[in-house]
Amino acid sequence: QVQLVESGGGLVQPGGSLRLSCAASGSIRRINAMGWYRQAPGNPRELVAQIISGGSTNYADSVKGRFTISRDNAKNTVYLQMSSLKPEDTAVYYCNADINSWRSPNQRTYWGQGTQVTVSS
Q: What is the mean pLDDT of the chain?
């Protein structure tokens, strides 16, 4: 059993900053990748940023230069530092992880419950 718990969402003015955190816990053998997705009303869920076990990262074009994903392997935690926020960044942000557990050799995808980010004046 693996759980992901997000924190750090909230209301921020355009141009402001927020940092999201996601901690994975449970029977974890290996975390192959962790990332952040977001979903706004009427839009599909989209990948925002991802970091894989080797340290390489991927970003959506819309957030490049403004968002930074990082990790703390000792804490099984991934962060998303969001700067220069825009109203179009408003969405529910979901933590995602591809994990091999001790109970199964097969990779499984896990999701957090989501945290609301609202960018508004």
A: 96
